[in-house]
Design a protein that fits this description.
Elements (H helix, E strand, L loop, with lengths): L1 E4 L10 E4 L3 E5 L6 H9 L4 E5 L2 E3 L2 E4 L11 E2 L1 H24 L5 H5 L5 H14 L8 H6 L16 H23 L11 H8 L3 H11 L4 E3 L11 E2 L2 E3 L5 E2 L6 H15 L9 E4 L8 H18 L3 E6 L2 H6 L4 E6 L2 E6 L2 H9 L12 E6 L2 H15 L7 E6 L8 H13 L5 E6 L10 E4 L8 H4 L2 H10 L6
Parallel strand pairs: 3-13, 3-14, 6-12, 12-13, 16-17, 16-18, 18-19
Antiparallel strand pairs: 1-2, 1-4, 4-5, 7-9, 8-10, 10-11, 14-15
Helix pairs in contact: 8-9, 9-10
């Protein structure tokens, strides 16, 4: 993504031209101009953004606290029907006006239609139905309805209840038509199989949202309108998975609302809700606990960027968010320089924590682990390689023998680890055998404490050796 700032915007001065990858994190001290830069990128009168050499006009900027919406909890299905009828009446009036002027074409008709969303709605109904402008019906409009046509042309909309009820309405109408068809009665529209229905309208939104809530460790699940009458109101609620009690969305924490908003945004990327090409979010982590910052980065990276190919830039003041952004490009903005520069994660962490006395933050994943001998190094490295194929390791262990010569001694491991740790090395650990009398400490682990004498008693376990020989067909049963 190539960005060119053509006109001055607050503290951002042209000429300013730079490139950013699909997902980047913008950081810097207060007053460096991060918000001003995001605003300038989003302002198409002052900048342009090229993706694969093409200018994009669809840049979405979410300002500070913009992912903390007021969630609309109630939906009256009659509001959908009333909106469709209103558009239909305007369309009919437009047709009559066009006929009086002898201009029988869709462009003349749309001149009499209220706003851009209504025009977009009508064009979509014509496209979906494949009908000519004079053949369009009110039912065609209803089939093509989307909440974006009610002035919510935003894939970050918080209209959970409306989205859920609209999907339920379509599903129930399809089920009713399927029943009528089985009885040989006339149907209002072609019946879709379950697979065809989901291919056209997506999976039930409540199932998708619940999956994202589980993935992000939010302890609630959303309700749904299944089992309700078509014409009954739907009230959106959340239920605690463990306790079973219900809460209002207003009772969610700021962090939970942010992740909920992201969940619905991801669902909306599969529809017509103004999916952007570029997403700019100013400090989305401002109200988040560090663990939620990590979840937010994961959701943005996997679902917004990778699955939906939306170029994304977020700004942050949080060292935690920077550390959680491993594998994502980090850029620093310095006051007086409008062009962001790429920096290593550790440099960004130090930048954000440099003015806080006694605070030390490290993103170093490596852990130096001293063991008793060079043979133990081989054993532990092989075990780590095997286990690392099964699970994602939270750190990268580097095994080091406490002695470089032959022989082994657990006392050497204990002495080396204690000396290095007392001199400020916080990435240092040790592993020693039990040997019947060793005890674990804060930094030295005892393998098989109280169970096995040494590592060889695990590796050469008679039962495991017998299974290995049988697997290799060395011995008969």
């Amino acid at each position: 993504m190539r960005v060119t700032i053509r006109q001055k915007h607050k503290s951002i001065n042209p000429p300013c031209e730079f490139e950013l990858p699909e997902f980047s994190v913008l950081t810097g001290k207060n007053g460096s101009g991060k918000t001003h830069l995001l605003e300038a990128i989003a302002n198409k009168d002052k900048s342009h953004v090229l993706i694969d050499g093409n200018i994009t006009q669809n840049v979405r900027y979410i300002g500070f606290n913009g992912l903390n919406p007021k969630i609309e909890e109630s939906c009256d299905p009659n509001s959908i029907k009333q909106h469709v009828k209103n558009v239909w009446n305007q369309y009919n009036n437009g047709k009559q006006n066009a006929q009086r002027r002898n201009k029988n074409n869709i462009e003349s008709i749309l001149q009499s239609v209220g706003d851009a969303n209504m025009k977009k709605f009508i064009r979509k109904a014509l496209e979906d139905s494949g009908k000519a402008y004079n053949e369009l019906t009110e039912d065609d409009l209803e089939d093509s309805f989307d909440i974006s046509f009610m002035g919510q042309n935003d894939f970050f909309t918080a209209q959970f209840a409306l989205i859920f009820k609209n999907y339920h309405k379509r599903s129930e109408e399809n089920n009713i038509n399927e029943y009528y068809q089985s009885k040989g009665k006339p149907i209002s529209k072609p019946v879709l199989t379950q697979d065809d229905f989901q291919a056209k309208y997506g999976e039930p939104p409540w199932e998708f949202v619940n999956r994202i809530l589980t993935e992000t460790n939010i302890p609630y699940e959303v309700n749904n309108p299944e089992g309700d009458r078509l014409d009954s109101n739907f009230v959106f609620k959340l239920k605690d998975r463990a306790g079973g009690f219900e809460i209002s969305s207003a009772d969610l924490s700021t962090g939970e609302k942010v992740l909920m908003s992201l969940a619905l945004a991801i669902y909306n990327t599969g529809g017509d809700l103004g999916k952007p090409d570029v997403l700019l979010i100013d400090e989305p982590d401002a109200g988040l606990h560090p663990s939620m910052s990590k979840m937010m980065v994961k959701v943005l990276k996997e679902h917004i960027v990778q699955e939906n190919n939306i170029h994304t830039v977020i700004s942050t003041h949080s060292p935690t968010t920077v550390i959680a952004s491993e594998g994502i490009a980090i850029y620093q903005l310095i006051r007086g320089n409008s062009t962001p520069t790429k920096i290593p994660i550790q440099d960004a962490v130090e930048l954000l924590s440099s003015d806080i006395p006694f605070l030390r933050i490290s993103n170093e994943r490596r852990r130096q682990i001293f063991v008793e001998s060079k043979y133990d190094v081989i054993y532990y490295e092989l075990l780590t390689n095997i286990y690392g194929r099964l699970e994602t390791l939270p750190a990268e262990p580097i095994f080091i023998p406490a002695r470089t010569s032959n022989g082994s001694n657990c006392t050497d491991v204990i002495d080396v680890v204690n000396n290095l740790y007392s001199n400020g090395n916080e990435q240092i650990y040790g592993i020693i055998d039990w040997d019947l009398n060793n005890s674990p400490t804060n930094r030295v682990l005892v393998l098989g404490h109280g169970e096995r004498y040494a590592i060889e008693n695990f590796l050469l376990d008679p039962l495991l050796m017998g299974i290995l020989k049988k697997k290799k067909k060395k011995i008969p049963i």
